[in-house]
Amino acid sequence: MDTTVLVIDDESDTLEMVATILEVNGYRVLLAESASRALEILKTAHVDLILLDLAMPGMDGFEFCWELHRAHREENVPIVVLTALDTYPWSNEFLATLYDIRECLHKPFQPVDLLEGVRRALLAHTAKADPAGSSTVSSSSSTSLS
C-alpha cells in the first residue's frame, strides 16, 4: 500500500498506538507531536491523509486546519479528527467541507474504528475527486462528515 498518513497528536502514547495500527495494516506513517511540526513535515512530504488531534498546546487542531488550508489549499488533503471533545465546530458542514474533514473519531477508539475511519475518509476523498467513485459508509463509533 502506498498510502501515507500523517498523525498529529501531542500524546506520545496515542502517536505510538495509531502508528502501530496503521503500519501493521500497510500504511506508511509520519508522526508529528505538534501542529507546527506537522506543517514543517508537509513542506517536504506528500501525505494522503491527516489524522489530527484537536486539543494540543501551542497551535491547536483548529488553527492547524486554517494554516494548512492557507498554505496548501491546492492539495486538499483529507483529515480525520481524533478528539476527546464532546462538541467541535466540524459538525458545521461549511467548515468540514472547507477543510476536507472526513471523519471524527472520539477518543478512546478501537483499532477497527480507526481503520474504518481511515478507509472511509480515503474513499470519500477519492469519490470527491472522481464523482463516479464510491460513497461513504456510516459507523456508529465515528461521525462521518462527508
Could you say how many structural domains there are in total? 1
Q: Kindly report the name of the CATH homologous superfamily.
A: Response regulator
User: Can you tell me the CATH architecture?
Assistant: 3-Layer(aba) Sandwich
* H/I helix tally: 5
Strand order of the largest sheet: 2-1-3-4-5-6
Radius of gyration, in angstroms, nearest whole number: 14 Å
Average pLDDT for all residues: 83
Give a written overview of the molecule.
The protein has helices at residues 12-24, 35-44, 61-72, 93-98, 111-129; strands at 4-8, 28-32, 49-53, 79-83, 101-106, 142-144. The chain has 146 residues and is α/β, with parallel strands linked by helices. It has one domain (4-144): Rossmann fold, CATH 3.40.50.2300. Strands 2-1-3-4-5-6 form a 6-stranded mixed sheet. Helix 4 (93-98) links the parallel strand 4 (79-83) and strand 5. The protein is globular and about 35 Å long. The protein starts with a strand and ends with a strand. Mean pLDDT is 83; it is low at 133-143.
Descriptive labels:
alpha/beta; Rossmann fold; six-stranded mixed beta sheet; 6 strands; 41% helix
Topology:
Layout: E1 4-8, H1 12-24, E2 28-32, H2 35-44, E3 49-53, H3 61-72, E4 79-83, H4 93-98, E5 101-106, H5 111-129, E6 142-144
Parallel strand pairs: 1-2, 1-3, 3-4, 4-5
Antiparallel strand pairs: 5-6
Describe, in short, the structure shown.
By secondary structure, the protein is of the alpha/beta class. The chain is 41% helix and 20% strand. Helix 4 links the parallel strand 4 (79-83) and strand 5 (101-106).
